[in-house]
Amino acid sequence: MKKLLSTMLVGILALSLSACGNKATTATSASDDGAKTSVIGVAMPTQSLQRWNQDGENMKKQLEAKKYKVDLQYANNDVNAQVQSIENMITKKCKVLVVASIDGAALTDVLKKAADNGIKVIAYDRLIMKSPNVDYYATFDNFKVGVIQGQYIEKKLGLKEGKGPFNIELFGGSPDDNNATFFYKGAMSVLQPYIDNGKLVVGSKQKDFTTIAIQGWDSAKAQARMDNLITSTYSKGTKLDVVLSPNDSLAIGIVAALKNAGYGGANKPYPVLTGQDCDKPNILAMIHDQQSMSIFKDTRTLANKVVEMVDAIVQGKQAEVNDTKTYNNGSKVVPSFLCDPIYADKDNYKKILIDSGYYKESDLK
Ligand code: BGC
Question: Does domain 33-134+298-339 have CATH number 3.40.50.720?
Answer without folding.
Answer: no
